[in-house]
Amino acid sequence: MSQALQPLTPQALQSVRLIATDMDGTLTQQEKFTPMLLQTLRKLANAQVPVLIVTGRSAGWVNAVAHYLPVWGAIAENGGLFYDQNGNSALLSDIPDGHRQKLAQMFGTVQARFPQLRESSDNLFRLTDWTFDVAGLSLEDLQQLTVLCQLQGWGFTYSTVQCHIKPLAQEKAAGLQQVLRRYFPMLQPEQILTVGDSPNDQSLFEESLFPVSAGVANIRNYAEQLAHLPRYVTPSETAAGFCELAEAVLQARSA
Questions:
Q1: Which of 80, 129, 77, 78 is nearest to 106 (CA)?
Q2: What CATH architecture does domain 17-92+171-254 belong to?
Q3: Which H or E run contains 15?
Q4: Of 137, 175, 182, 244, which has the fewest beta carbons less than 10 angstroms from its beta carbon?
Q5: What is the predicted pLDDT for the residue at 87?
Q6: Cα 98 to chain center, whole Å?
Q7: Span 76-88, pLDDT tens digits
Q8: What is the mean pLDDT of residues 109-115?
Q9: Which of 251, 245, 238 is nearest to 27 (CA)?
Q10: Which residues contact 32 (CB under 8 A, 6 or more apart)?
Q11: Residue 149: which pLDDT band, with cuts at 50, 70 and 90?
């Protein structure tokens, strides 16, 4: 990878009109929302900067997140479904009949190779993908899982908390683009800031799609594993890094 992570510069944020951000490891600190994060989201809402969460978390969890947090909406399951703050929803991925049963069969296949794998606690609340915990898996294990799923016609990605077996075309960027076309057709790519921290966010870092992207500082842990790197990186990790980024956006907007 020739692209290097760069420090965040205020000049790049002057045109930002919407923030599309990952949740776990980006908006959370030790898997929790912080008081500072909630205050920052409220500041963005008051400044009329919509925040759209784009997460790998399940449909069941994300429906609640979109309702309770001061955000415009949320995309669940790495681009599979969308919920707005009023509870309206839309399926973003093409899901055939028997989809969950086929996912379960694929999980059985990978579990035969890796017997220690266990479903994630939120897998019961999913519609488009199948998840298991990433803890205890090495980079070599994750690479083997990627190949195994691809050979069976499935996509595979992982975050700081979960591994996802999913449809090949289901990506965060694809889901985000659908929502943007439907609800924000007036925005240009350079007016959208995408934010993330791990491999399942890398489609949000593809410069040809989203020229203004940022990683919170913990993205450095995965730099060698990403096909696309964010254009900028925040000084701090996790939720503190997102809050730094949001403050920079607000300052650039007021200037």
A1: 129
A2: 3-Layer(aba) Sandwich (3.40)
A3: none
A4: 182
A5: 84
A6: 26
A7: 999 999 999 988 9
A8: 96
A9: 238
A10: none
A11: very high
Q: Where in the chain is the domain with CATH 3.40.50.1000?
A: 17-92+171-254
Span 155-204, pLDDT tens digits? 999 998 999 999 999 999 999 999 999 999 999 999 999 999 999 999 99
CATH code for residues 99-166: 3.90.1070.10
Of the chain, the end-to-end C-alpha distance in Å amounts to 35
* Paired sense of beta strands 51-54 and 162-166, if any: unpaired
- The residues pairing with 19 across neighbouring beta strands, listed in sequence order, are 51, 193
Q: Checking DSSP bridges between strand 6-7 and strand 232-233, what pairing results, if any?
A: parallel
Tell me the two tokens of residue 134. 């990433």
Give the contacts of 112 (CB within 8 A, at least 6 positions apart).
none
Answer whether 208's CB lies under 8 Å from 228's CB: no
Q: What CA dihedral angle connects 183, 186, 188 and 194, to 10 degrees? A: -30
